[in-house]
Amino acid sequence: MKPRTIPTFPSHAIILLVIALFLGSCRTEPIATYSAEKRGEYAHAAVVSGHPLASQVGNDILEKGGNAVDAAVAVQFALAVVYPRAGNLGGGGFLVYRSNDGSTDALDYREKAPAAASRDMYLDSLANPVDGLSTKGHLAAGVPGTVAGLAAAHERYGKLTWEDLVQPAIELAENGFSISETEADRLNGFQEAFLAFNTNECPFIKELWQTGDLLIQSDLAASLKRIKAKKAAGFYQGETADLIVKEMQSGNGMITAEDLANYEPTWRQAITGNYDDYKIISMPPSSSGGVALLQMLGMVENAPLNEYGFHSTAATHLMVEAERRAYADRSEYLGDSDFYPVPLDSLIDENYLQYRMDDFQPDSASTSDHLTAGNFVNRKESFETTHTSIVDAEGNAVSLTTTLNSNFGCKVVVDGAGFFLNNEMDDFSIKPGTPNQFGLLGAEANAIQPGKRMLSSMTPTIIEKDGQLFMILGAPGGSTIITAVFQVFINVAEFGMPLDSAVFAPRFHHQWLPDQIWVEPTALGEEVKSELSAMGHQFRDVNRMAVIKAIQRLPDGSYLAVGDPRNPDDDVSGH
Ligand code: GLY
Predict the structure, then answer these.
(1) Is-contact 497 422, C-beta < 8 A?
(2) Cys-Cys crosslink for 173: which of 18, 221, 464, 509, Cβ 3.0 to 4.6 Å?
C-alpha cells in the first residue's frame, strides 16, 4: 500500500448552523422528469442557455462563422436583455475554455469587493449581521466583472468583430421581446422589492406583467451601444460608469469611479483531475466549484457505483458522504486565492481524498461535527444564476456561468443605464459562522477584504474522454450547483444514462451543514429513504435544485444538447 501523506491544514472549521429555506420557494409544481423540447441533436455545433432567444443568438453567431467564444459573448449580452433576473451587465462570472487542440483556459470575471469594503461592514454595533444588508440594496453590490470579462475573452479568442457580438442584444433591448410566463411571474413577484430600491421609472415595474408582454429596455440599449463602441471602457468609464457612481451615491452604496476603472478580470489555469478515463476541466478559486467537484469525484472513484445502482441506498450514502466532506472543506479552506493561500493541490490530492474517506462507514451516516443549534433563518429569497454551454464547428468548447447572485441581484437598477446590480457581497463570509443565503458557511479564507473576490459555487466544467471532448456542463443553483454537476456526470459515466435522462433525473444534495440530504420530488424511493434514515441520515424536501445545461459529444461526432425542465425557459439550438 502506498504510504499516505496527510496534508497539514489550519485548525478545523468553526461550526454552526442556520438554514436558508429559500430553495424551491419560487416554484411549487413538481419538476418534469422528461422534456423532449429540452434536447436537440446537431451535426456541427450546439448552444444551451437559459433562454430561447439567447440560444438562437448563439447559433446565429456560430452559423456566421463565429467560434464558441464569439457565441458565448453574444449569448451573454443577449441574456443581459432577455433574462434580466440572472443574465447581466452588473454581475460577474466564470468561463472555462477548451480548444479543439486540447489546450484549456479559465477566465475569472467574478465581482470584487469595493476598495471601501471592510470585514465587518454588514455587522451592527453588537457584531450581529444586519438582516438584508448584504443581500438587498446598493451596499450589497460588488464591482461588476461581466463586461470586462467578455471583452477579455473576445480579445484572446474571438474571431468575429466585437460589434457583431453586441449588436443582437442591442436589437433585443431596443425592439423589445415577449416575456415568458416564468419571467412575468418573476417580475410580478419582485415588484415590491423593485419599488423599494428604485425611485425613478424603470422598465421592470408595471402593475401586472402578463405572458407575452413586450419588454423594451431603452436605457439598457444605450448602455450596450456604449459598450459596442468602446468595449470595456464603455462600461467602466464615461457615461455608464458615471451613472453607476451616481446610483451608488443615491443609495449609500460603495462602488466608486476608481473601483470601476480598476476592475480587471483574471486569466487562471483551469483546475483539472482525472476520473477513470475522463479528464475533468473546471473552475479554480475564486470559485469553489472545480475543487469540490474533483474532491467528490476522487472520494467515490474507487467504489463500484455502477454495481450499487442509480439512487440505491449504497450509492446515495457514499455520494452524500463525499458531498458532506467536500462542503466541510469548502467552508474552511476556500476563498479568493489572490488573497488567501488556498491549499489547492492538497485538497485534490488523491491520498488526502482517501484519508478524508477513512472514517466513512458503509452502514451509518457521519454527523457534521460539532453541530450547535443555530438560529434558524427563513429566507424567502430564491437563487438565480445562469449557465451557457457551447461547442462550435471546430470542436472548441465554452462552459460559462454568470450571476447577479439572487434573482435580479440587489434589486437596484442603475438609473439611466437600465441594468440590475448584483448582490454578490453576500457570498463572502460576512461573519464566521453565519450562513449566507444558500446556508453556506465560511471562515477567514472568505472574509471580506477590499478588492477581493467572494467565493462562488459556480462550476462551469468541460470533460474529456480518452483525450477527446466528451461533455460541457454547468448550472445555476447556488450551493446545489456543484452536487448537480457531480451527479449528472456520475449518471452518465457510472449509471450509463443518456445525457437527457441524466439531466432530467431528480437529484439530492448534502452541503455538510445543515446536516440534511435535500431531495427533489421523486428522488430516492421510500425504501431507500427509510434505509438511509436508519443509518442516521435526515431529509429535507425541496422542489428543485440546480438547473443543468449540458452538451455531450456522441460517438459519431455529433452533439446532444440538453436543457433542464427545472427552468421552463431553458432552450437548445444548433446546426
Ligand atoms: N452567487 C452564487 C455563487 O456564485 O455561488
Answers:
(1) no
(2) 221
